[in-house]
Amino acid sequence: MRHRRTDVIDRAIVVLDEQGLDEWSMRRLAADLGVQPSALYHHFSGKDELMAAVADELLRRGRRPAEIVTWESELRLVSVELRDAMRSHRDAAELIAAVHTRGVGAQEPLRRMAGALQRAGADDELARVGASTLLHFVFAHVSDDDRDFALGLDIVLDGLTARLVR
């Protein structure tokens, strides 16, 4: 049976939940799909590309329809969506952070954050560094309880607001 790229990604998420990232492999995924490992290379050049596709799918699934009123509300929304995606499946936080760090996937939240800051009037440097700071706050505090996360997010956003009004 021939599988579509989306079928492979969906099954990879199931395997991630069942086995965790340490046990996640192209061979294991192929066995779960009932194909030879070489069949996966029709869709992905290797494990890094598959990991990136899974991370991007988890982020896509975490998107929420929302009316964005301000740059701050957009940053808050992107941060919460990212955190929720990182908490949505076993080892999803590690997967998303890893592919982002390698530059092979999970780049959309950073682009959205930088775009919101630019629309708020930030120059390129502040948009780049501010978005990176906010992204890394989320990465570092993904497992905080909701109240602590919200307070920390407020503190980071207050700092960005202060920089924008200078």
Automatic annotation (TrEMBL):
Q: Which domain of life is it from?
A: Bacteria
| Molecular function per GO | DNA-binding transcription factor activity; transcription cis-regulatory region binding
Sorted alphabetically, which keywords does the UniProt record give?
DNA-binding, Repressor, Transcription, Transcription regulation
Span of the secretion signal?
Answer: none
GO BP annotation list? negative regulation of DNA-templated transcription; response to antibiotic
Task: Tell me where in this chain the HTH tetR-type domain is found.
Answer: 2-62
Q: Which InterPro entries match?
A: Homeodomain-like_sf, HTH-type_TetR-like_transc_reg, HTH_TetR, Repressor_TetR_C, Tet_transcr_reg_TetR, Tet_transcr_reg_TetR-rel_C_sf
Question: Per the database entry, where does the chain bind DNA?
Answer: 25-44
PANTHER family annotated for this entry?
Answer: HTH-TYPE TRANSCRIPTIONAL REGULATOR RUTR, TRANSCRIPTIONAL REGULATORY PROTEIN
- What protein am I looking at? TetR family transcriptional regulator
Give the classification, highest ranks: Bacteria, Bacillati, Actinomycetota, Actinomycetes, Propionibacteriales
